[in-house]
Design a protein that fits this description.
Elements (H helix, E strand, L loop, with lengths): L4 E5 L4 H12 L5 E4 L7 H6 L8 E4 L2 E4 L1 H11 L4 H5 L2 H22 L12 H6 L6 H8 L3 H4 L1 H11 L2 H4 L5 H14 L4
Parallel strand pairs: 1-2
Antiparallel strand pairs: 1-3, 3-4
Length: 190
């Protein structure tokens, strides 16, 4: 069954524009429904009963509200990394190349600083470090080493993991790998 994606927004909503950019970057087909912000549709009021604001992304009947959360959701549902563990051959090779490019760009932004924010763990570090839990999965399925490709980025991951606040909550990367092995089996991708 194909994904059904609907975006409730307004052409004038800068927050909705963010979501449209994220959907376009992931090449997601979706239906755009223009909302009259002074006469909101029953679907909008039902989908976002607390704030009653756009944008709202409805993915297979489930609403996601607030542009930052929607963008994060889109990135998690349609990541380039999943193409590494879900595929083989040319598709996997292209996804691996794309991921390495993204990681090298992040490494370039990090530069010689210990953290993205400078000398102390900050907002960008907190936003990014959870993605490191997936690195082992990508490496095993993709047959490459992130340490070899992006050594400064991996040094940053280790520095982040020295923080009790990080190690206390980040799951073991091997657990992600095992989960995805099981998921591949369930999805018939083996």
């Amino acid at each position: 069954m194909a994904d059904k994606v609907v975006l409730l927004s307004s052409w004038a909503s800068v927050f909705g524009l963010r979501v449209q950019i994220a959907l376009a970057e992931k090449e997601v087909d979706y239906e755009f429904r223009e909302e009259d912000l002074f006469d909101k549709s029953p679907l909008l009021l039902e989908s976002n009963p607390v704030h009653r604001k756009v944008p709202v992304l409805i993915h297979n009947g489930k609403p996601v509200c607030e542009s930052s959360i929607i963008i994060q959701y889109i990135d998690e549902i349609y990541p380039c990394g999943s193409r590494i563990w879900k595929n083989k051959g040319d598709i996997q090779a292209a996804a691996k190349k794309e991921l390495i490019g993204i990681l090298k760009q992040l490494e370039g932004e990090l530069g010689e600083r210990p953290f993205f924010s400078g000398e102390a763990l900050g907002y960008v570090d907190i936003e990014l470090v959870p993605f490191s839990c997936w690195f082992y999965t990508y490496e095993v399925f993709g047959g490459f080493s992130i340490e070899k490709e992006c050594p400064m980025l991996m040094a940053w991951v280790r520095r982040c993991k020295e923080r009790a606040s990080v190690t206390k909550v980040l799951p073991d990367p091997h657990k992600f790998y095992e989960r995805n092995c099981g998921l591949k089996k369930r999805l018939g991708l083996e």
